[in-house]
Write the structure tokens for this entry.
Amino acid sequence: MEDAFAPTLDQWKQLERFVEMLIAESAEQNLIAASTIPTMWVRHIADSAQLLSLDTRDGDGLWIDLGSGAGLPGLVVAILSARPMLLVESRKRRCDFLRSVAAELGLAHVEVVEGPLERIETRPAATISARAFAPLDKLLDLSARFSTESTLWLLPKGRNAVKELALLPQPWQRMFHVEQSRTNAESQILIGRGKIAAKQRGKR
């Protein structure tokens, strides 16, 4: 974290407070597995932060985090960046948690939208991320309308990234490549750029 982002003292404090709130809330609702708490900083915080390091642009444009859940990676990115962040989450209790964290940490550039993705107003996204949101083909199909020709897709997919990519229609496959996670030797990240066109759907 220090080498990649050189967080300010305030950002370190925000990350530490987020971790405290996340652990406390996880005792009330299923946000993260209890078994991952001892390795929280690597398993969840650094794992989320690495997505920001993969976006090499100047940082303009809306970042949409799908199925944000515990705020991973969305809130971590929002702490480390001034990028406008839209957190999409369908479950009310999780949205309440996301809003409480954003309010306490003063993350005015974070907006939480509650509801199924299908019902969310279409907005052009500069970056789309999703961590454990849905199978890849469904994820792309549901989020296609948010993409533009310059949209960057950052999709952690664990050890199944290559398999999921191979199941996509060929036009989609050509948009993506697989990159090794910096925090887990068994995890991979799908990185893509461009617009998912409706005419591509279902074609192999």
